[in-house]
Request: fold
Amino acid sequence: MLLAAPAMQDAMVLAPQANGFDALAERVLAGEVVSRDDALAILGAPAAELRPLLHAAFRVREHYHGRRVKICQLRNARSGLCPEDCHYCSQSAISDAAIPRYRLDSVPELLAGARRAVASGATRYCMVTSGRGPSPNDVARFTAAARAIKTAYPHLELCVSLGLMDDVQAHELKDAGVGWVNHNLNTSERFHPEICSTHTYADRINTVRAVQRAGLHTCCGGIIGMGEGPEDIVDLAFALRALRVDSLPLNFLHPIDGTPFAAQHELDPAQCLRALCLMRFTNPQSEIRVAGGRELNLGWFQGLALFPANSIFVEGYLTTPGQAAAEAQHMIESMGFVVEAVETE
Reply:
């Protein structure tokens, strides 16, 4: 059953059930690649077609992931102190946002974060640092933490997000028990200079390739709501498809005072849902995560995001709060989905 807030409910109830998006789902399930015209049609779907679009995306999601929802939890292991100028980020060198600033967590602190993630029902724990890329000391800290965490919680999936990375660093992390590395493309290659000048889109692609060569799983997605156009979102979706990413987090800009994008308020729930559907149709087998900005930009409609997506974060993001784990689990169950359990075999 679809649950909707009153403002959007009528348009969704009146939507027809038989539609072109069902046909698109059939084609995707048959192995067909979504065209640019199809992708733009998804992003341009009128409100009256949002319900059938969500149902069509759900068909693809259910085929590959059932009704399971993976819960993930982040730890901001080093906050602020970053030399990069990413305009969306409260931790960047050009931000004067009022955020905590601290150096790299100790191994016991990272282990304590894993303990809290497990208590929240998370099956993946992601340790994130600000900065351009990891130093040798950073890599040593995270490899030690990974070994300690895997000893204490052998079935907990470990992810790190450490910035630009080379093959040697990626191999060291894998050997220590890290399974996933997050490094987002963020936007299209065309639009990337509008959001950052201190590293290039190619730098990001190279990091994802290094992660893949090391045999690690890729966690790679983007952010919408930064002033990009529909073509840029399609380019992002297609680039992620070309990279064959394993896990795809889609973030929705949370404008933060003190950052260059503080006044950027352009998203509504329907835009967020369309973008999630696009990611599902273009990357049908990938794990798709509703990531940062979910609570702010989707509001009443967060539950609907589970129709295209199969994963969420709980208990906050890097410098912004998020949905409590118990509340998230209630939302998942009330929408007819099930929380993915930790595999113990």
Notes: The radius of gyration is 19 Å.
